[in-house]
Amino acid sequence: MTFYLIDPEIPADFGQVSRDSSYDPPRVVSAHFEFHHPVDGELITSYSGAYAVTKPLADALAESELTGYEFGPVTASISALVEDPGGLVIPPLFGLIITGRAFIDDFGVQGHSNLIASERAAEFLWNRDARLRDWANRLDRDGNMILDF
Question: Measured in Å, how far apart are the chain's first and last C-alpha atoms?
């Protein structure tokens, strides 16, 4: 099976993140996103390694048969550094808690926070947002990027 490193947009800066260290790697269980930029995609991340999805993507994932995730709490705010906070709209978000094992389940985490998706999970995401394909890298069995020229 082919797996991909998915690197979604990062419109949010470091925020508070709670991790459950009883898992290896530790699992993000809740997060706060502090936004500096508009949310353009349905799957986002922050520099703190937390992931969130919009309601439409959460609904689609819930109806899918993909494995290795659950939804959890997430809060959001607009950074005090944003010049026009009224112009920055944050959609309803759900925390995407990655519960799967990288290279086994549809979603997993490698290292501190690298999102690994099976080919079927990657295709699911790409069908919803083709830009995610531009931010994905195919991986070999050892988790190394395969450079396609």
Answer: 21
Helix (H) or strand (E) holding 47: none
Distance CA 113, CA 69 (A): 14
Q: pTM surpassing 0.85?
A: yes
Could you count the other beta carbons within 10 Å of the beta carbon of residue 45? 22
Residue type, 147: L
Cβ neighbours of residue 10 under 8 Å, at least 6 residues apart? Answer: 44, 45, 46, 47
DSSP-derived 3-state class of residue 46: strand
Q: Tokens 């944050």 label which residue?
A: 90
Strands 27-35 and 74-78: parallel
Q: Taking Cα atoms as reference points, which of 30, 25, 36, 35 lies closest to residue 51?
A: 30
Q: Two tokens at 35?
A: 């936004």
Using an 8 Å Cβ cutoff, are 74 and 50 in contact? Answer: yes
The tokens for 45 are: 């991340």
Residues 27-84: pLDDT tens digits?
888 999 999 988 899 999 987 778 999 999 999 999 999 999 999 999 999 999 999 9
